[in-house]
Amino acid sequence: MKKLFVLRPALLLIIAIGLVLSLKTTANAAPLNMPDGTVFDPIYYADTYPDLKAAFGYNEKDLWAHYDKYGRNEGRACTGNTEAVGTVKVMKDKTLFDATFYANAYPDVVAVFGTNENQLYNHYKKYGKKEGRMAFEGQVVNATAPPKVLTGDAAYYIKINRRACTVTVYSKDESGNYTVPYKAMVCSSGNATPIGSFSMGGSARWLQFEEGTVGQYARRITGHIWFHSVMYYKRSPETLLWGEYNKLGTVCSHGCIRLTEEDAQWIYENCEAGTIIEIYDDPDNPGPLGKPEAPKIDGNDPRRGWDPTDTDPGNPWKATEE
After folding, report:
1. pTM of the entire structure?
2. 157-310 has which fold?
């Protein structure tokens, strides 16, 4: 009896250590999918960096706050496994990548590389990242630096804040540089909208889309990415997809920049081919002129088939205003 009494504390200690190790292993095997899409393992993060473990222990909230504010920029690894969380996978080099999303978002890549995960990931590493393509849905891509020379022959310079869904048009100052905020527009961008600087291309009074809808006053940004109005069922201004119109100001397009009819027409008529368009991400700052609001359309209103901003003389919204 005495011998058993002496051994009991030791057994309890062993069991307690075993439970701690078990809990630790479980946590490390199930990294967290954070709100911005990052796969984060707090146990791995603490154990990998003793300075952080000394400061925060295994406090999940504090460890994530450190990584989000400092660790990411310092190049610290946030997970040690390659298990899939949702459809986002942590690749061997610690990059987050969603092959399903990438294939769906970029059909031009699939047309060349197919849907093989390794082929898609190799494209992202070699080309996609530099082109501003997103590796997974909801990824915030760092804003690109503006061109070194912010001057040119065009009358305007256009900046699109992809995450804030705002277009800001700049005009020239007395020195001929594009520093004067001239006009702001609310827009809808998409996850497939590329980051970078582009030269405006051709135009189309009505642009036909694959699903059969059309858009007004289109100007090409790059490739299959255009400025255009919200879509219509056919080439007639009273056939607006009003539900899509009410999404202006959100990230919901297939990659193009959707605008009100009035704003699309303004770009169509005032911005020539060769105008520089810069697309960047800054969800917290829409731009120097703020983010305008588009009027909302009531689905029960008989005028719902018209864009309220349309300059067409037959627009019933304009007749009401008068």
Report:
1. 0.58
2. L,D-transpeptidase catalytic domain-like (2.40.440)
